[in-house]
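Example (one chain per record):
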Amino acid sequence: MEIPPKSPDGSEKSPQSKELITSNTGSTLCMSSRSESVWTSASRSKWDIYHKPVIVVSVGAATFLFGTVITSLSCFLPKNKDVYKMCGPAFLSLGLMLLVCGLVWIPIIRKKQKQRQKSQFLQSLKSFFFNR
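Predicted structure:
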């Protein structure tokens, strides 16, 4: 019969068994896999829902306008023309990319909100009929 090796602190349990006993795997898994808003049914304001895409759209629009100004400077100021011609289109493309990403993100959030409302409605119907 084989004797398991003792752990460094002198206790009889192996480090793996201690880890298994003391870990709260089930509760931490649920906490990390879903956000709090899924489990709680508290209503959120429009700003709480749409603040990230609004910020992305705003930054994208500002960057796009900055790129437009820099690109137009290459026409009016001949001193640093090469710098303006290189930086202007870069800011234009970056701003346009952020602007489009933010504008596409808004309908995706709306669709998720509708699906969540339908899901909550179906869950309430199911609990009403099956808990009788």
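Caption: Confidence is low (pLDDT under 50) at residues 28-39.
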